[in-house]
Amino acid sequence: MDKFVIRGGNPLVGNIRISGAKNAALPAMAAAILTDEPVILENIPDVRDIQTERNLLVSMGAEVELGYGRASHRTTISCRNLVNPEAAYELVKTMRASTLVLGPLVARMGRAHVSLPGGCAIGARPIDLHIQGLEKLGATITQQHGYIEAAAERLRGGHIAFDKITVTGTEDLMMAAALAEGETVMENCAREPEVADLAALLNKMGAKIEGAGTSTIRIQGVDKLHGARHRIIPDRIEAGTFIIAAALTGGDLNVTNCEPKHLGALLEKLEECGVTVTTNGESVRITNGHRLKAADVSTEEYPGFPTDMQAQYMALATQAEGTSFITENIFENRFMHAHELVRMGASIKVEGSRAVVHGYTPLSGAAVQCSDLRASASLVIAALVAEGETILDRVYHIDRGYERIEEKLRGAGAQIKRIGEMLPKKAPAPVGVA
Ligand code: EPZ
Question: Residue 423 has what pLDDT?
């Protein structure tokens, strides 16, 4: 079990290049199920969830080639010989997004046998809206022994109004409706950039989808989809993580190969905290030389403040002057990181779906534990400003969604190592930084 050892105190300086978005790559790989022709995806991040998705597709009979060397971020998927429309519990329990194969399997194969995902560290996260939507498209669904059995000779278009905004629910049903007979109208859809990116891929495959990225999506079903080539959008949450790290460490960092317009809510909030933000084409420059100001945050669906940035923002709030109220509206149990930050010296009180953070509080290095992907990112960021050394346990959580985070941070001056390697002597502080 890898650990990180982080010595705090170095500002982040220079450039960090952003990888492709995990949450766009996963549905895009599932979309390959919809055709018997090859789908080529570029800018795929080299993270553990992509490996899991690959294993899932291969277990169904797909050929998945993950590129290496110069082509290391390209993936070619062929679902010509799909024989086993099943997503086994062993895979689904390690990655909930595996349920994204449900709609495509029913649409293409007429049948799907998919394990229910079960509970998750950040909340109950049921998939009832995926199931209700598929039933609206004419599928027959039964549930037995922890598995969903879904079947339909051919799905037919229908009207779906989501009771609650769901990202993968919107993606799953958009993929199913692409091969349904007739028109589907979906309302109260998720507007996340990853949804629009999936629709762009599906339309390249011959689908007829309009309105992705808005609350209402209209899909004219087609009989057959073909292969396509598509470049995945940059990861806005990875970008946001490094942007907050730079603001916190008082550095001067350029986050490159990202899409600033996908980061609107976060950048606005950071300016409210007194951070200097400069966007230029595909990069965001962060400079911050003074104490941050406290500012409240409430997580919402896109384009609101993302729940996937809440934990990282909490680390920032511990270093801001004043009291910050952080309200989590999307998931019912997403404050696990708060207890670990308190171990590092933070002053945080969790009251139901709200956390009250008193700052500024100096942090000191400690042994802490990762509980989920974004909580881990929050602890890495906190360790970058903590006095002394932090030992981060269970970093497999962070490897699920961040590509070589320790190398990227080290490239910008951070002192971070995966345990097992001797830490180098303390690097001399850059010129002019006390
Ligand atoms: C996606 O999860 C992301 N994952 C999550 O990122 C992200 O936190 C989440 O959207 C919200 O932005 C991927 O895209 C792979 P939801 P998803 O369905 O689709 C409830 C990360 O860190 N709900 O939008 O699973 C649900 O419980 C991950 O990268 C139902 O009640 O989230 C939640 O409270 C973590 N029934 C809310 O809706 C359903 O059928 C939003 O969940 C579906 C969802």
Answer: 44
Which residues make Cβ contacts (< 8 Å) with residue 33, sequence separation at least 6? 57, 60, 62, 79, 82, 101, 104, 105, 108, 109
Computed on alpha carbons and rounded to an integer, the radius of gyration of the chain in Å comes to 22
pLDDT of residue 68: 58
273 catalytically annotated: no
Comparing CA positions, the residue from 76, 84, 74, 81 lying closest to residue 38 is 76
pLDDT in tens, 270-283: 999 999 999 999 99
129 lines ligand 1 (CB under 6 A): yes
CA distance 90 to 108: 23
Name the more confident of 65 and 338: 338
ω before 104 within 30° of 0 (cis)? Answer: no
Lowest-confidence segment of 30-34, 117-121, 321-325 by average pLDDT: 117-121
- Mutate which of 56, 167, 172, 308 for ligand 1? The one with the most ligand atoms within 8 Å of its CB, which is 167
pLDDT one-digit tens code per residue, 321-367: 999 999 999 999 999 999 999 999 999 999 999 999 999 999 999 99
Helix (H) or strand (E) holding 245: helix 236-249
Q: Ligand 1 atom 1: the closest Cα is on which residue?
A: 167
Q: Which residues, other chains included, contact 160 with Cβ-Cβ below 8 Å and sequence gap of 6+? A: 132, 133, 136, 137, 173, 184, 185, 186, 187
User: Is the CB of 21 inside a 6 Å radius of any atom of ligand 1?
Assistant: no
Query: Does 193 contact ligand 1 (Cβ within 6 A)?
Result: no
The rounded Cα 197 to chain-centroid distance in angstroms is 14
Compute the residue count for the chain.
434
Pair of tokens at residue 201: 């891929």
Name the 3-class secondary structure at 420. coil
Half-sphere exposure of 320 (CA within 13 A, CB side): 27
What pLDDT, on a 0 to 100 scale, did the predictor assign at position 420? 77
pTM of the model: 0.95
CA–CA dist 283, 102 (Å, integer): 36
